Structures are given as structure tokens and as C-alpha cells.
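Bench log, entry 3. Co-assembly request; chain sequences pasted below exactly as received.
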Amino acid sequence: MRKIFDIIANNAVPAVFIIISAFAIPLSGYSASYLVQELLTRIGRNSFLILSLLIPIMAGMGLNFGMVLGAMAGQIGLLFICDWGIVGIPGMVLACLIGTPIAIVLGIFCGHVLNRAKGREMVTSYILGFFINGVYQMTVLYLMGWIIPITNPTLLLSRGYGVRNAVSLLGIRGILDNLIPTIITGTQGTAQFVNINGGKSFIMMQLPFLEGSIRIPLATLIVIALFCIFIVWFRKTKLGQDMRAIGQSQSVADSAGIPVNRTRIIAIVISTVLACYGQIIYLQNMGTLNTYNSHDQAGMFSIAALLIGGASVSKATIANVFAGVILFHLMFIVAPVAGKNLIGDAQIGEYFRVFVSYGIIAIALVLHAWRRNREREAARRSLRGNKGDE
Amino acid sequence: MIKKFIENAGWPRIIIALFLLALFVAAPFVGVRVDTSLSNTLVRFGMNGVMVLAMIPMVQAGCGLNFGLPLGIIAGLLGATLSIEWNSEILAKLSELGTLYKISWLNDLFLTTWREPIGFASAIIIAVPIAAILGWFYGKLLNRVKGDEMMIATYVGFSSVSFMCIAWLLLPYKHPTMVWGYAGKGLRTTISVEGYWLHVLSDALALDINTENIHLYVPTGMLIFFAFVALIVWIFMKTKTGTAMTAVGSNPEFARASGVNVDRMRTIAVMMSTILGAVGIIVYEQSFGFIQLYMGPFYMALPAVASILLGGASVNKAGILNVIVGTFLFQGILTMTPSVINSYLQTDMSEVIRLIVSNGMILYALTRKVRAGR
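Structure output for the full assembly:
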């Protein structure tokens, strides 16, 4: 009985999502090729950010709500390359290079703060996100263009300092996604897409059962795949093993001679730096930077997606990441239209989407805490000697 | 002596108190009136006080800071909107009573001077049971997730707010001042309480000095109401239940050993917090003048949490004095920074300062090593 309950509890979240999607997809009336296209775009856009959450989970630090720190670092990098007018891949690389040291500093700070709040890392990193958001806003809204030189007038508010709310990233828009242009077409859509890149060569595949065509952000997917390999490799290194040991039990890891606090800081620093790159990849796909909002959403949506993929606070795999992106964004795409077709109000679908994102995080956190308390109870009971019911 | 005081008060509090003092001192030099600033601070204090009080029971019972305050706020919003929706019915029923017992002066009172207080009271009377029910479920939930209350509370708050976004659109409200004009259904994002119970507490017994040299406004009624609620909470914390609650918070094992039902105490504490949150938002709205629906209550927990921490509370200990000091300091800074800093720097930095101060304070409280884990 308990076993069945465990299986349900472990997979309840993805299962609910599959059911919701199964109802919502026909209601939305979108074609399969449209959905596949949208999903591919969103996998390219979001996976990297979500993957950055894996390492702190491995180190037993829960969901790193502090990933928004990394996102902010990435945005600062992007603001600078926009100011300097560096476009294309060099621009992206430079943004990463500027973002990295900022992310490292923020990550070290975050790690120290979290070491002082063991046992409540999540809520602390969550509040830390808000706190650094305040510092970020101060920097971007007051110091940039005043103390930190920003010369490009299109970037600044009309008062002469402070960055505008929306910054166009036209220079690097889609630059990684379209680095290796790839299009899959169905049998009908061959001819009209030959001209799309103006004679530039691109990989083209044909699949018989598809209608229309699908562009694949191949280079982004390759970067993501490389990153997945990195994580798999990282788990096997000494550092990775140390982190897993800490994730199991801090006191045991400590007596085994693993520097617990230091390793935890390293886990957070890696996560923050990766979130910085993730945000840059995300924004190159979006093409506009909402200076004061983009990072907030990054954290919330990434965490929701990971949990929807079946991850828990203490265990997350690469498979969870991709399952999560697909399920979460499938709902993202279809919910407003489904809501409109069902009740006649697109706003309701929109609110439903927000509700589900928050609700799912709440449920996942509850399930985790509940299970952990039950395990602790069971452990205590087995220590007492009577393994049966109380 | 001084060293001990600093140790007790904690550096962040002292820095912020000095900052506030500096703002008040600097105010006249940049052309900001101290008396109006003080009045504004008092008004904001009264507006937010009860919501900050809502932190006490949960902190004392060891459930941590109530980041789930939006749940109570939602109950309050339901009470507020329903009191307007049913306003005329309620008044009609009451005046019927007056006619029934042939007390015509009572009848007149219901329809004239008492109209607004009755509206306000009905909002609270409707909101409290809703808050109690929501709080009961919320308490049961938090009992199952001991150790992780704060994070879960945050997301319970968020998901209930976003759930209610859907509900506000779908609930069958009919009152023309509240629903969207063109569709005739779905509540508006902000609803004015003017003509119902605007300033019903604030203007009661209010001290309003408005001469050439001095502009002072003291919302006496609202402050008395706050004092009244604070007194209830204080007395409650002294009763047997309240003491048991504190015992649960400071040492659950010990409390269990001495025969206290830990889960029950925690549920009661959560219910109280939720009810106080509901009453708090109604007090807030009568002064503010508007009911803010949809995403309005989303981040309302953070200022309340920051206030009580600023007043010297920790994650597992809080009292009335913490509420009073904290709310005054926090609201003082919110009032003073826009006016003073803006006149000095010609920019509006208040939002950023609010973010840094409130979250910095919460962060400070969370990272203090009060007790080594559970």
C-alpha cells in the first residue's frame, strides 16, 4: 500500500500535466507542426536555465531560487554589449565574459549567506533574490549612465541616466539559434523555404508525415547537449561525488573530511554562472530584454518547469528537465487558447497558467516536506525497534 | 550598557532607526514638512499595523514567518467585496428589525450615521469565518510540512492569489460599482469603497489640525482599533492556550511531553494569523480607499514580515512591541525616503530602498543563528 502511494506521489505532478495537456491540446485547435515548432523553440530557450538548477539540488541545497542572481549578471553583460554595439556571436561571448565574474561574486555571496541559513536554504535564497534585485535595480536604474558609463542614448532613459525598461537585443537576436540553420519540412512545404536565408546554406530534412515546416535551433540544442554531458561528467568527478555525499548527509560528509561549506559555495557558484549563460541564451532567443522583469520570471518559470518534469527538491535528473520543459510549455502555449475556447475568456487561461505554475511549486514542496517527515518518522520508529505500525 | 543595548537591538535595526532619524532631521532643510510626514507615518502605521500583528501567533507557535499572509488577505477581500455587494440588503434587514420592534430612532440610525460603520462591520463579520476556514486548512497543511513552513507558505500565498484571479472573474458579483461596466460581470481590479466605509475608522475621533503653521492629522479611530486588536492578541497570548502556543514554538518536544497537543496549537495559531490578516486588509482598505483585487495582494506579505523583523522579532519569537516599533520604523522609512531623498536627489529611489531594506531585514533574520536547527 505504502509502495503504491509512493509511486503515485513520485509521479503525480507529471501525470496531472499529461492529463491536462491531453484535454487542452484538442481544445486549443493548434496543429501538430505548430506545437512542435513552438516546443522546439522553447526547449532551446529555457533548457539551459533549468539545467543550472541541477547542481545545487545534487548538493542537497534544494531549489536554487538564487539563480535569478545569475540571470541578473547575464543581463548586465548584455546591457554592456548593447551599449558598445558588439553584435553576433562575439557579442554573446563577450556578454558571457562580462557576466561570469559578476555571477561568481554573487554566487560566492549567495553561498556564504546560505551556509548561515542551513535547513532553510530555499526561503533564504528566495529572499536573497529579492534583495539582490533591489541592488540590481539601484545599479541599473541610477548608477548606469551616471557612475557606470553608458553612452548609447537609445539605452538610457530620457533623463540621462538609468536604463530603459525594454532594451532591444536586435544585434544578437536569434544569433545562436540560427547559427546552423536547420529546417525540417513536410512534403508540401519544400520550395518556399529555400529562399529564406538568402542563399545561405542550411541543413534541410524532409519528413513525410509533417505539414508545413519547422525550424530547429540546432546550435542552441548542441550547446545544451554539451552542457548535459558536462553535468553527467561532473557527477563522476571528485567534486561531484563530494556534493552528492553532502546532499545525503552533511554530518557524515563532514566526518569523511569533505569541506562541506566550501563545496556548497562551489555548487552555488557553478549554478549562478550557468544561470548567467542560460539567461543570455534565453534573451538571445527573445530578442528583447525587459530590464526590470526578465530575471524574475526566469527563476519562477525554470523552477516550475523542473518540478513539473517530476523532479523533487532533493532529486532531479536531466530527463526531468526536458520532460518539464515540454510539459510546462505545452501548457503555456495551449492554456490561453483552450481557456478562450472553453469559457470564452483568454484572460482566464492566462490566470490559470499562472495559478498552475505557483500551485505546482507549492504541491511539489509540500510533497517533498511531507515525504521527508514521514521518512524521518519511519527512521525513528525503526530505531525504537518496532517496525510495524504504531 | 550601550554595548548590551546594541547587542539586543541588533545592528541593522540601529542603522535603520538612525537613518530614519536622519531623514526626519534632514526633512526641514530640503523643504519637507515634518508634521505632514509624521501624520503620513501615523496613517500608514494604522493601515498596516494589524497585518503585522498577524505575524505574531504563527511566529510564536514555531510556524515561522507568515509568508502566506495573502491567504488571510483574500478572506478579507471576500469580506470587503461581499459587504458592498450585500450592503443594501444588510441595511434593509436591519431597518426591518427596527420597524419590527417599533424603534424608529434605531431605524433612522441604521440608514444614516451607522450606515458606514455597519458596512465595515459586515465586511469583518463576513471575512472572519472565511479566514477561519481557510486558516484551518492552511494550518493542517503546515502541520504536515514541519521544518519547511516558510517556503510552502510563500507558495500557498502565491497560488491562492492566482487562483482567486480566476475566481474574481467568474464569481457572480452583480453590484454595478464593482463589476466591469461593459461586460456586466467580473470584478474590477480596483474598487472604491467611497460611499460604503471609506475612512470609517480613520476619521472617527480624528485629530485634524490644519492651521497656517501646522498640518497634523492623527487617525485616532484607526490607532485605537489597532490598539484594541493588539490588546486582544496580547491577552490571548497570556491565556492558557496562548502560553501553550508559545511553548510549542520554543520547544515542541517539551510541549508534547507536558501534554500539549502540538498540532492543534499550531492550527489555532495559523487560524489566528489568517483571521488577523483578513481584518488587517479591511482596515488597510478603509484608509486607502480602494479594494485591490487580482495581483494586488501578491507581495503584501513581504512588507509585513519585514516590519515585524525590523521591530526586533526573530524567526521564532515576536511580541506586540516588535510590531509597534517595526511598523513605525518601516512605514516611517517608506514615508520619508520618497519625500526627502527625492527633494535632495531629484529622483524617486523609494521603491529600490524599500526592496533593499525590507528584504535585507528578512535576510538578516533568516541567517541569524538563533538555534541550531530542529
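The beta strands of chain B are 190-192, 207-210, 215-218, 290-292. Chain B touches chain A at residues 67, 141, 144-148, 150-152, 154-156, 158-159, 162-163, 165-166, 169-170, 302, 347, 349, 351-356, 359-360, 362-363, 366-369, 373-374 (CB under 8 Å).
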